[in-house]
Amino acid sequence: MFASTDTLDMVWGLSFDQTMLLGAILLIVIDIFFASDIPTHTGYVLIAVVVGRFVPAHVMLQVLCGVIAWCGIVVFHYTLWRTFIQAIVNRKIAPDRYQPSTQTLNGSVGRIREISGEQLIEIDDELWLFTGSDDLVVDDEVTVVSSQGGTLVVRRRQRKE
Questions:
Q1: Is the Cβ–Cβ distance between 77 and 58 less than 8 Å?
Q2: Which of the listed residues 9, 41, 66, 110 has the most CB atoms within 10 Å of its CB?
Q3: Is 0.70 surpassed by the pTM of this model?
């Protein structure tokens, strides 16, 4: 009725664990092309299951080892892997896919607006926090020089009189 492990090995050529690892690798590679962590985390769960299955102990210890392996893989993902993948995607696949939005505004021209007593810069109908060395007033036209921590650094372009 059900195929045994030996039958699966003969038909597919890979063991159950090897098939799960192959599926996990495929899901992790898919993460490079899609802006979602769901396939990657599914692959991590598959890897954790395989790790747990290799522990020659009681099933509860296998589950514990699998959970510990999954936690380690997730820490690796958010500390190293994601940064590595973002660098590859930025260089080779989609150069501005992971670029923070304030960095894309360098060189843009905007106007100073006052909203609820706070001065903001308006660029393309969006309001941004800014700092500037000059005394800027409402309706001044400014150019974005750089950005620091989500705040735009601007300089006066021309004074409206």
A1: no
A2: 110
A3: no
